[in-house]
Amino acid sequence: MKSILNLLLTILFFSTLNAQTVDDFKSRAELGDIQAQYEIGVLYIEQAYDDKKGIYWLEKSANSEYLNAIVYLANLYHGIAHQNPIKCLYYAEKAAQLGHTEMAYLAGSFYEEGIGTPVNKEMAEKYYKLSIKEAQPIAQYKLAMFYLYEKQDKNKVKYPKVLKYLRLSAKQGYAPAQKELGLMYAYGEGVKQDMKMSAYWIGQAIAQNNEDAKNFWVKLKLNQYVDDKLEIID
Predict the structure, then answer these.
(1) Domain presence at residue 144
(2) Residue 22 CA: distances (Å) to CA of 27, 37, 225
(3) Residue range 116-161, pLDDT digits in tens
(4) E strand or H helix at 195, and its extent?
(5) Rg of the chain on CA atoms, in Å
(6) Within this chain, do residues 166 and 223 fall inside the same structural domain, yes or no?
(7) How many domains does the chain have?
(8) pLDDT at residue number 32
(9) Nearby residues of 123 by Cβ (< 8 Å), 6 or more positions away
(10) Residues spanned by the domain of 192
(11) Are residues 111 and 171 located together in one domain of the fold?
């Protein structure tokens, strides 16, 4: 019954398109045109609802290193309908190696959390580093947190790296990084304790309505350390 319904949907879909356009896609795809393979694959999935044929063409395109197809497949296998962590990671890594920073971030999170693969901190670090090439504040924050928590022994924490990426992220206005940087100043973790700097950065996070920052502002009584003339050296 399902196969009959898919067939009817496919027929209906292609009947609504210009026949010459469809024939052009198909002939180009069959001749090895990787862009056409990608385009016909997306059409099958998103408009004809024939996932099997769509994935077939997308995989052919992806196997020829067509980045759009690779990213599409990674997202497809990351979604609920086709959730497959192993395949998702495979295509995310493939895209990351071709310079796609968002896919590098996704691959890094999979390795860190052990999704579709055993936990591998070295691979997580590798892909997080690839993901920050375009100065993405979320990726920078994630990498900072990776360095902060990768070692259970606080004496082995790579604080210079933690602070480096927190500052990069905080300066771009990412509230969780601003809050975390403020806490490091408050508790003197990896940096000399400076309550004025703590008040500044946590205040920046509060300005973006970060609830954790609000709680720490009260807990640490930071109101008394506000300094409008403070010179920010971070």
Answers:
(1) yes
(2) 9, 12, 67
(3) 999 999 999 999 988 887 668 988 999 999 998 876 667 778 899 9
(4) helix 195-206
(5) 24
(6) yes
(7) 3
(8) 92
(9) 107, 108, 111
(10) 135-234
(11) no
Q: Which two tokens stand for residue 104?
A: 């590098």
- End-to-end alpha-carbon separation of the chain, Å? 64
CB neighbourhood size of 172 (10 A)? 15
Which of 64, 97, 115 is where one domain is finished?
64
| Cβ within 8 Å of residue 66, ≥6 positions away | 34, 35, 37, 38
Where would I find the H helices in 17-157? 19-30, 34-46, 51-63, 67-78, 85-97, 101-113, 121-131, 137-149
Mean pLDDT of 94-123: 94
CA distances in angstroms from 115 to 128, 175, 195, 215, listed in the order given: 15, 27, 39, 32
pLDDT digits (tens, 9 = 90+) for 36-45: 999 999 988 9
Tell me: do 130 and 194 sit in the same domain. Answer: no
Q: How far apart are CA 165 and CA 149, in angstroms?
A: 14
Q: Is residue 62 within 8 Å of 74, Cβ to Cβ?
A: no
Q: How confident is the model at residue 6 (pLDDT cuts 50, 70, 90)?
A: low
pLDDT averaged over every residue in the chain: 87
- Domain edge (last residue) among 94, 113, 134: 134
**Torsion angle, CA of 9/12/17/19, rounded to 10 degrees?**
110
- 174 DSSP 8-state letter: -
Structure tokens at 137: 């504040």
